[in-house]
Amino acid sequence: xxxxxxxxxxxREVVKRIETVIKDLWPTADVQIFxxxxxxxxxxxxxxxxxxFGKWERPPLxxxxxxxxxxxxxxxxxxxxxxxxxxxxxxxTDQETEVKVDISFNVETGVKxxxxxxxxxxxxxxxxYLILVLKQFxxxxxxxxxxxxxxxxxxxxxMAISFLQLHPRIDARRADENLGMLLIxxxxxxxxxxxxxxxxxxxxxxxxxxxKEEIMKVMTNGxxxxxxxxxxPLLPGNDVGRSSYGAMQVKQVFDYxxxxxxxxxxxxxxxYPNRDSESTLGxxxxxxxxxxxxxxxxxxxxxSKINLSPELDNRLKIRDPMALCNGEQQQNRDSxxxxxxxxALSLASTQQLSSxxxxxxxxxxxxxxxxxxxxxxxxxNVYQFSLQAPTQLMASLAPALPxxxxxxxxxxxxxxxxxxxxxx
Length: 424
What we know:
Layout: H1 5-25, E1 30-34, H2 36-39, E2 48-53, H3 61-70, E3 80-82, E4 89-93, E5 100-105, H4 110-123, H5 127-139, H6 153-166, H7 179-193, E6 199-202, E7 208-211, H8 212-216, H9 247-264, H10 289-302, H11 310-316, H12 326-335, E8 342-346, H13 350-356, E9 400-402, E10 408-410, E11 415-419
Parallel strand pairs: 2-5
Antiparallel strand pairs: 1-2, 3-4, 4-5, 6-7, 8-11, 9-10
Helix pairs in contact: 1-10, 5-6, 7-9
């Protein structure tokens, strides 16, 4: 489910069309991409988040709405102006691609947040894999949005970072660590052992679980720590999870996933009647035929447009005051981990799983959440990695594992195979 080059090309075209309308209205306006598209942690159906910087006393929502209608950029009935929201936005669906877009004005907090996330993606090479699986898991249960009672992408990313920071025995900076075990232990921690009532999550200074009473001391405006209490690493006193009113429902589905996966990798799984036809990861994650067809359509239409012209790249480049110089950017690109690899991740027995995942046993503290995926940031990096299940995500236990090629591949007993490649 990871981003493909043609999907990034399609999204850049959507941004270009909207940017053209904005520039016609305000030539000096600065259009920036933020959210999951900027970090590369977006699913095929994820929204695009844009922020427009300019000098206005009030966000000119209606003026931009009229211009978008005039240029037929969006489906006519999809454009909505939410001027009463905490962050006023324009919502629309691109007419050609059916990609949903949210546009806000002068939201400045995102540059630091996106940079923060990208730094941790470099520090923990396994973080993108974990996030994409978890996002798909929550998406299919309608728990990936704050307004539906779920948790935002920003909250999920902070929870995953905290999990990797405080894991007692696994080094998430190593690409050869056991992704399958990490996923199960994440579900165990936040679905079973995390103390949502008393504890909160802190990311800064290496990460910690802290009592909610400590977090409340720095909170302002009479706020109290929420059920899912995540301390904002960039804005002291802000509880990122404060709007996630369905946090306990998220806890329940995480617990469900832990039970299903831990049973699937137990020795008893060899006697399952469908063990040869259903993947392990496929027991908790499904990809609809509609999404498969949509991705095939994107590949057919935009596959030849992967290499964008320099002019388009320059138009979409974010003017980030904190951006690194060209030399540093090139060095970072060279040092970015390659996601075009297959990771065979052996899982321990259920006895080892229960006793070894002490990260989940530590008294838990909760964290904070914001409403949008992530705040504004620089132009997106496209990471080429895919997690394959029945069709998109693949995990299996069988000693002889049938792969898409039709040839059985040997794998050790009770092994969870999570393959990452460009073929999905």
